[in-house]
Alkaline phosphatase PhoD
Amino acid sequence: MLSSAGLAALGAVPLTSAPSVHAAGRDPFRLGVASGEPAPDGVVLWTRLAERPLAEDGFGGMGRGSVRVEWQIAEDERFRRIVRRGSVTTGPSAGFAVHVEAAGLRPGGEYFYRFRARGHLSPVGRTRTAPAPGSMSPLVFASASCAHYEHGYFTAYRRIAGHDPDLVIHLGDYMYEYAPGDYVGANGIVREHTPGKLQSLADYRRRHAQYKSDPDLRAAHAAAPWAVVWDDHELEDNWAGKTPGSKVPGFSARKRNAMRAYYENMPLRRSSLPSGTKIRLYRRLRWGSLATIHLLDTRQYRSDQACDDWLRTDCTARAATGRTLTGAAQMRWLSDGLRGSGARWDLLAQQIFLAQRDFALGPARELSMDAWDGYTADRDRLFAAIQASGARNPVALTGDVHTAYAADLLRDFDDPSSARIGVELVGSSIASDGDGYDDKAANAAILAENPHIAFTDQRRGFLLARTSPDALVAEFHSLPYISRKGAAAKVAARYTVHDGARTLSG
């Protein structure tokens, strides 16, 4: 964790010197700092200036002029050993966001970074670069998803920060688009959204700013680099490709606004800069030769959900061969990447439940049309690609469903003896749906109906995984409540995936 030690000057200006003309004003770093996209020689540094984060125009009270922002990277958090520095200019056209693609760093290194603007110094962030190619350095990562601001506090983010992970993988639903009270959690409205369902660019910018006003989220960003990908609520519930998730007109404009605001508020590289209604979010990160992380986008290229989106017992359309979840280009990219990975572990960071999940007891089937169960032809293509690639240890990392699961992935879920494709680790939500619960009877029924699923838990939390050449050890951390601040997290379950086994062991 970052200490509270005093910080040295930024550049040549000592902190004890007289403040600039702006220094007496409001702090522009109220949204914190973040880093992401670690490579062996560099990382993305992020901040977004906002003196008044919820200003109605979406510009954070920064006015209409440009602002010069200085940045530094050091090997120590007192900034006595500064290794890189520079300055950039941001302004209204960028939503006052800053994305620095820092390079020239050593592989596998821990670094500290900060910014300065208008006489104010930002909080200090901790980051690290990926190991060098060929390295088998261990990887400790957390995966998280689904943080609804109105449903409770983001204590789980604070608990993630406390583990000092090497990497945080966020699997989507970073924020929610609903108007206040439109989606009420188990504990009612714990704290209220900014007004209105999101429509304009200012709306999306303000909502992102509200989420980053949470100190626990800021702590998790400052603790480690992140790799992010979205799901649906960063735009609107259950959207699919060109099909809106609601009957509210103006979907194309909302998509443009949501994509732009998402980029402005995430530590992404310029390769993810949106163009109109398109944004490239599927991409690949490498952690030496230990792990390749394939980040998938299962929203932007999918066919519309079959049979009206949700649970269905009699939807034959879900199996149509022409239906796609990833789109053909992304599936080819993934197939090629799996073949060429050569890593000990291939992590598929994606949004929606991959294994079959039958909610109906007995011979009938009740399946979610918004998950891979609604796109079975594409799931078959994915599993065939994994098998053909020779990937040694495929592991799917999933969010979306607000419940933790651990499951084996079978080539044929109706045949328990069929080939093991890999495993799926599903983290619960950070906050969505409010305080969770432990329904032992319901859990037992789900496990009995789905023998490939080993574990389920409806409490809030996150996944923490320790990955080495020999094994991936996954811990499911759960919190007893989020309707109040300060809950402790405990390990609800722990599973090991041994090298080459492609199955869970308790």
Summary: The chain has two domains: 33-128, 139-498. The radius of gyration is 22 Å. Helices lie at 155-162, 201-212, 215-223, 251-264, 328-341, 376-389, 440-449.
